[in-house]
């Protein structure tokens, strides 16, 4: 069954117009220094649900955009690779969910976001944390449980936060109503900010998701519900868990869009449209981003008992979001292969250095066991394991949400 | 055909009497078995014995369970009796409870009890209270099971003990087994029990092997819910614990034995009902009491035990105030050194015992 979804994906590719001559005749390629300053790409159209007009299928990029998007996607990939190794070295503990394969979703959305838009996601959060402004060291050190971590090592893989980024939630589905609540606050405060609430195809079945849809629609909340359909919730294919696998239609009365989540440009265009829609007071949207995860569900799942190695290989070879984007920007002469090589090297150095630093970093002191339980602690002492050594509460973290 | 078969099996199952139970077991010809296999064999045997028993939960069938506790059951019993659910705890806990109301004997697996919080309304409002509200007309013979308590390196949302939460609620029976024998005997008892049972396993112990006596290996091995087990007799102090904290206490007891202090270690096995008689008897002998648990202190299992001792005759047998060793009163941190500091270690128990007994 999963195969069908997959075939569908394959049929959808090759929609980009690579033909450089064509763009030249349109005057969109200037041949200064032998490469283009701008290129326009065609994307696979979104599928629409209860919407009249569609996101544009034509995306124009300049060199800077292209390099930024490539850098971001590739950084996330390297970050995850490094995290995978740290897990194997037993430095990263517990549950560890990698985002490799899904980079185009987060990077594409981020391209369309404005500074005052917010994001909340589930436990597959390393990439988003980086995109929302935490340096690779902050992510890596958090995973190592060290003090330079963005949550001082107290949250770990699944719980990272920063400005306008509300986690990092380990409870499947919980982030969806939270996202609607963040949207409510944005509207309440009179901003035109929107909240992007991301969840998986598995999470899409939680009851609270539908409760959130209803209230968001009822109250026209500026919330964009994003179902990252990577085909599986743990070892269960979407078809085995969902009576309706067109996730973009599952908001019933909430309009929806399906987007090719392996194409960063399609995602970017889709979200430019969606953010504009939600910010203009029209209420929520449900967007299904069709994507794929390369690794197992978490590091402890080999990820090969419920899908074939061939399936994974096929996606890697034919639809990889980074490789395909790289091909596009090189073939349109927007960037050169050498430039890409240089960036790859820089990213490698950045991540390797950050990894070394994270490993060498210290854990916070035991005095912080009892830090930040409360904003205003009312208990004179907090009970420890025994009654003889009470803990003293401390405030440390500056709140990012009270300004 | 299936219906005919199941009808006859229903008849048999209804007549089946509870097997004799053993609260202590001889380890003469003890074979090692992991907690995981003990749980698996308990479900397997009960599914074989009673056609009404079925298993439902996330990844329990085709994936063999997220922690492989249901390994092989789907292959053996098929789609009808081992059911993969979507990630919808509230929904499937309600469905399982409804099926129990209508005469089936569901085992409702939560991938971990952290996720049962999504479904706690059905556990308490639908399962625990219905028998009472219906004046004894509607039974809810269901088992809610899954890993509970502190896991390793998974931070606050995935690491906490729900023992006290469920033990708080009348109408529920709450079991918190320690080793393989506990798990097998008590899970079988829970499945056969006509009331809703919350069965709290420990993920960290799944892969640990414990000896299984011949009795425990038998298909008739059932342990009584509500009876504690004296894991190690002793005369100087009583240590009462459940789940992984039993191990912490046994390790502490071992260390203390080297210093001439003999601890009596009680494995509670069951949190509701709480076997206060066994504790009382022990305290009457040792005159000292220390409770040990991984859960939070406030309104915890230790708090309940100490309160019940205060309210009873046993209080007069105490030479020193009873004390609690608990998890620290904070959400679980991810960082390793902090995580260790948040959970009772044998050294914490040793220190508290020494303090209580006023020895250096
Ligand atoms: C309420 C709840 N139930 C179960 C789990 C265990 N769990 C964690 S991730 C997951 C699968 C989720 O799949 P999906 O939503 O598709 O997201 P993906 O992992 O594919 O990104 C499950 C069952 C959980 N964390 N929370
Ligand atoms: Mg998924």
Automatic annotation (TrEMBL), chain A:
Coiled coil: none annotated. It catalyses: N(6)-[(R)-lipoyl]-L-lysyl-[protein] + pyruvate + H(+) = N(6)-[(R)-S(8)-acetyldihydrolipoyl]-L-lysyl-[protein] + CO2. Residues 72-363 form the Dehydrogenase E1 component domain. It holds the Pfam family E1_dh. Its cofactor is thiamine diphosphate. It comes from the Eukaryota. The keyword Transit peptide applies. GO terms for biological process: pyruvate decarboxylation to acetyl-CoA. Keywords: Oxidoreductase, Pyruvate, Thiamine pyrophosphate, Transit peptide. Its EC number is 1.2.4.1. Transmembrane segments: none annotated. One of its GO terms (molecular function) is pyruvate dehydrogenase (acetyl-transferring) activity. The pyruvate dehydrogenase complex catalyzes the overall conversion of pyruvate to acetyl-CoA and CO(2). This is Pyruvate dehydrogenase E1 component subunit alpha. It comes from Callosobruchus maculatus.
TrEMBL record, chain B:
It comes from Callosobruchus maculatus (Southern cowpea weevil). InterPro entries: PDHB_mito-type, THDP-binding, Transketo_C/PFOR_II, Transketolase-like_Pyr-bd, Transketolase_C. The keyword ATP-binding does not apply. NCBIfam families: PRK09212.1, PRK11892.1. The pyruvate dehydrogenase complex catalyzes the overall conversion of pyruvate to acetyl-CoA and CO2. The keyword Transcription does not apply. Coiled coil: none annotated. The lineage of its organism: Eukaryota, Metazoa, Ecdysozoa, Arthropoda, Hexapoda. It comes from the Eukaryota. PANTHER family: DEHYDROGENASE RELATED (PTHR11624), PYRUVATE DEHYDROGENASE E1 COMPONENT SUBUNIT BETA, MITOCHONDRIAL (PTHR11624:SF96). Keywords: Metal-binding, Mitochondrion, Oxidoreductase, Potassium, Pyruvate, Thiamine pyrophosphate, Transit peptide. Its cofactor is thiamine diphosphate. This is Pyruvate dehydrogenase E1 component subunit beta. Its EC number is 1.2.4.1. It is found in: Mitochondrion. GO terms for molecular function: metal ion binding; pyruvate dehydrogenase (acetyl-transferring) activity.
